[in-house]
Amino acid sequence: MMELRGLNARSGWSELSPTPREPVERKARGDTARRPSITDVARLAGFSHQTVSRVLNGHPSVRPVTRARVLAAIEELGYRPNSAARTLASGRSKTLGVVAIDTIHYGPSSTLYGIEQAARNAGYFVSIVSVQALDRMSVRDAIDRLVDQGVEGIAVIAPFVSAQAALDELPEKMPVVAVEGNPEAELSVVTVDQVEGARLATSYLLSLGHETVFHVAGPPEWQEARLRLEGWRQAVAESGAGVPPVVSGDWSARSGYSAGQVLARVPEATAIFVANDQMALGLLLALHERGRAVPDEVSIVGFDDVPEAEFFVPPLTTVRQDFAQVGRAAVELLVEQVEAGSRLARRVVILPELVVRASAGHPKVA
Questions:
Q1: What percent of the chain has pLDDT over 70?
Q2: Which one of 177, 216, 243, 279 counts the least CB within 10 Å of its CB?
Q3: For residues 239 and 206, is the Cβ–Cβ distance under 8 A?
Q4: Cβ neighbours, 10 Å, residue 7
C-alpha cells in the first residue's frame, strides 16, 4: 500500500512512500526470528512434510486441491525453498548454466534474457558465466566453472565463428545447446534464420523498384554478420541486379555513421540494407547531414527491431528476431536432454519477420 505524505511546497507534486506494514505483520506473527521452513508449511497446510516436498518438486501424483492448499500456505508464510537442501534430497540442482559473451549488444543480451525467462518458467535456476571472448580456452574455463556448480545442462550463446572450436571439446555427457551457433555443429543448436532475414530485407527493397541494394555489414568474426551478408548477396544476385561493394561496421551507431558518410556520396545508393538497427541509426544521421532524405532519396532497412526502432526518424523498417522464442527453444532442448540423460543433436531454426515502417519507399523518379 501507499500513503499520501503531503504536498511538496516547491514542486507541487505529491510525495508517495510505502507504508511499512509488512514488517509489522511479520512481527505480529512472530516470523522475524527465523525464516519459515518446510515443516511450517506442512503444519499450516495440514499435510505431511513429504506431501509438501512433492508439491515443490512438481510431482504428478499430487491432487489439485492438495497442491492448492500447499501453495496457499507457502504464499501466506512467504516460504522460499532452500535450493541446497533440495539438491541434496533430490540429487538434482534444477540449475541450467549459460555461457555468454560479455557484451552490451542487443542480440546476445536479449537472447540471454529470453533464456533466463524461459528457464524460470520451466522451474529452473540459471547460473551465468560471462566471458570476454568465445575462444577455446575461455569457453572451456566457463564450462568447468558451471560443471563444478552442478548445473544439469549448459547453453552457450555462441555468435562468434571462433566459438565452434570450443564447442567441439565440450564434455560428452553434458547436455548442451549452442544458441546462434553454427547450424552445422554436431550438437543441439537454436538459431534464427539469418540468411532468410537478410533475404527478406533485400527482396523488400528490390520489390519497391530499386535497381540494387547496398549493404552495411557487421564484423566478419560474428556468425550472424556472415549469414546476413550471404542472404543479401543471394537476393541481389538472384534478382539479376549488380552486387555492389560492401561497407563494413562493428555493430555500433558510430560505425553506421561512418558508413553513411561514404554511401551518401554514392548516387546509386538509393537502397541500403543495414546488418543491425544501431548501425542504421548512425546511417540515418549521416544521410540527414548530407542532405539525402529518407525515404524520398534513400531507403533503409535494418535488422533486430530494437525497442527504439519505431521511434527513429523516420521509423525504421527492420527484421525482427523473436528472442523470447529463442530462449524457450533453447531451454526446451536442454530440458529434453536432461530428462533423456544424454546429449542430443537437434536443430531449431526460428524464422524472422519483416516489420514495415516508414524508412523505405519507392525510388525517386528523375
A1: 86
A2: 243
A3: yes
A4: 11
